[in-house]
C-alpha cells in the first residue's frame, strides 16, 4: 500500500505503481531530495548471480526444446504417413480401374465355372480377345468357302477373277511393313 514505508522511510517503486499520477509526482520529489544509495556487490556475488541466471536460461531453453521437439517429429511423421496413405489410395484406385477396364493379366483367356461352362469376363481385354478369335474363325470360313468355289469352278471350267483376295488382317500387316 502507498502508506507503508521501507526501513529508511522510502517507498518501494512497486508500491507506488498503484498510486495516482499526483501521488507518484510527490514521491519522485521526495526520492530526489534524499541521496541515492547504491549497494555495491562483490565480484563473487556478481558471478554467483550470473551463474544462476545462466543456469535458469539453459534450463528454460532445454525445457522449450524438449516441449517443441516431439511435436515437430510427430508432425513430420504424421504428414509422411498421411501422404503415404493418400498415395496408396490413389494407386489402389488406379489398379482397380485398370483391372476393371483391361482385366487382370491372364483373365481375358477365360476360365470354367463348376458346371464346365466357359466364363466370359466383361473387360476390354476379354472382348478384344473374343473378337480376335471370331475374326480368325471368319477368316477360316472364308478361306474354306473360297477353296470350295475354286473346286467347283475347276469342275465346271468357270474362270475366277483372282485366286484369293487378302484378308483385312493381311492388308493391315502389309501396310504396317
UniProtKB/TrEMBL annotation:
Domain of life of the organism encoding this protein: Eukaryota
The entry's keywords: Cell membrane, Ion channel, Ion transport, Membrane, Potassium, Transport
Primary location class: membrane
Occurrences of domain Potassium channel voltage dependent KCNQ C-terminal (ranges): 20-150
Membrane topology, as annotated: Multi-pass membrane protein
Ranges of Basic and acidic residues composition bias in the record: 167-177
Record flagged with keyword Transport: yes
GO CC, any one term: voltage-gated potassium channel complex
Region (Disordered): 1-24, 157-177
Organism of this sequence: Frankliniella occidentalis (Western flower thrips)
Stored Pfam families: KCNQ_channel
Subcellular location per the Swiss-Prot or TrEMBL entry: Cell membrane
Catalytic activity as recorded in UniProt: K(+)(in) = K(+)(out)
GO molecular function: voltage-gated potassium channel activity
Keyword field contains Membrane: yes
InterPro entries: K_chnl_volt-dep_KCNQ, K_chnl_volt-dep_KCNQ_C, K_chnl_volt-dep_KCQN1
Protein's name according to its UniProt entry: Potassium voltage-gated channel subfamily KQT member 1-like
Amino acid at each position: 500500500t502507498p502508506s507503508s514505508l521501507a526501513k529508511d522511510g522510502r517507498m518501494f517503486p512497486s508500491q507506488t505503481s498503484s498510486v495516482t499520477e499526483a501521488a507518484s509526482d510527490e514521491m519522485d520529489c521526495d526520492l530526489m531530495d534524499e541521496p541515492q544509495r547504491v549497494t555495491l556487490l562483490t565480484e563473487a556475488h556478481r558471478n554467483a548471480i550470473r551463474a544462476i541466471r545462466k543456469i535458469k536460461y539453459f534450463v528454460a531453453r532445454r525445457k522449450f526444446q524438449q516441449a517443441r521437439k516431439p511435436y515437430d517429429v510427430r508432425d513430420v511423421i504424421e504428414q509422411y504417413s498421411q501422404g503415404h496413405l493418400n498415395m496408396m489410395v490413389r494407386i489402389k484406385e488406379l489398379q482397380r480401374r485398370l483391372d476393371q477396364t483391361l482385366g487382370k493379366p491372364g483373365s481375358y483367356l477365360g476360365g470354367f465355372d463348376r458346371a464346365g461352362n466357359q466364363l466370359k469376363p466383361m473387360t476390354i481385354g476379354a472382348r478384344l480377345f473374343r473378337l480376335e478369335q471370331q475374326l480368325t474363325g471368319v477368316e477360316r470360313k472364308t478361306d474354306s468357302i473360297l477353296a470350295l468355289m475354286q473346286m467347283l469352278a475347276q469342275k465346271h471350267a468357270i474362270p475366277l477373277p483372282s485366286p484369293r483376295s487378302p484378308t483385312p488382317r493381311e492388308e493391315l500387316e502389309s501396310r504396317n511393313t
